[in-house]
Amino acid sequence: MSTDYLIENARHWSLFQLRRIGWQGQLSIALLLVSVLLLVTAEISRSEIDQLTIEIE
Question: Which residue ranges traverse the bilayer (predicted)?
Fold first, then answer.
């Protein structure tokens, strides 16, 4: 096997991997953003509940 063949094969494989990871990567990023959004919303709700509890006391 020549070095040129290995380089070309590696280049093709990396492009193939990038194309393959495309929608899966986007999906995982979207899920990550949704989970962060849910965590932030839960944290805001918790702090509002804490404030209400302080006001009641």
Answer: 21-42
Helix (H) and strand (E) counts in the chain: 1, 0
pLDDT in tens, 2-56: 777 777 777 776 666 666 667 777 788 789 999 999 988 888 888 887 887 777 7
Is 49 within a domain?
A: yes
Number of structural domains found in the chain: 1
User: Domain for residue 50, yes or no?
Assistant: yes
pTM (predicted TM-score): 0.47
For residue 37, what are the CA distances in angstroms to 45, 50, 56?
A: 12, 20, 29
